Amino acid sequence: MQTVTFKEGDDLEDVINRDSSSMLIEYFKMNKVDPYARNFLYKEFPEFYRWIKGKKKWQGRKLKGRGQVGRIVYAHPAEGERYFLRVLLNHVRGATSYENLKTVNGKQCANFRESCEKRGLIETDKTLDDCLTESATFQMPYALRRLFATILVFCEVTNIRSLWDNHLEAMSEDYRRSQPN
Predict the structure, then answer these.
(1) Same domain, residue pair 109 and 156
(2) Is 0.70 topped by the overall pTM?
(3) Cα 135 to Cα 132: distance, rounded to the nearest angstrom
(4) Which residues span the domain enclosing 94?
(5) Do 104 and 98 meet the contact criterion of CB atoms below 8 Å apart?
(6) Same domain as 133, residue 94
(7) Residue 54 CB: number of other CB atoms within 10 A?
(8) How far apart are CA 148 and CA 171, in angstroms?
(9) Which candidate among 64, 72, 99, 132 keeps its CA 20 to 30 Å from the CA of 22?
(10) Are 109 and 63 part of one and the same domain?
(11) d(CA 24, CA 156)
(12) Distance (Å, rounded) from C-alpha 38 to C-alpha 45?
């Protein structure tokens, strides 16, 4: 999940063995060894710990909670797993690894998106399907088509084809009446 850069002529063994510590990896390590650290979200961490750049490690602050600001790099929903990792870091306290973030109620999820869904942090396709089903009871077909288009533009739909197939009949009712073939 972490980007690794290297030059064309670099020995791959050296690249693999090179120190790949980052603020996030060290955050995970600190949560493993320090019970106090597990109380904080990743963005809250800088209020209580400071990053020592030369040593690439977190160190406890003497004056805790004095308004230091923590930032998490922005990620657009279209970035996929990077975005879902960001969502998890903003909502899960004391994460100890990527695998820990993917674990929900003792069960390992396949990816960060699934973990977000199981934790209730993002909408699932079922929510969108329910929205279209409910709207079909009182909306005209053209309004359903506009709602479908809005969902495609502004929501993260996992299975667009399934959503289309489930609501095609309701969305095309006016066309079928005027164009029977």
Answers:
(1) no
(2) no
(3) 5
(4) 1-121
(5) no
(6) no
(7) 5
(8) 9
(9) 64
(10) yes
(11) 26
(12) 9
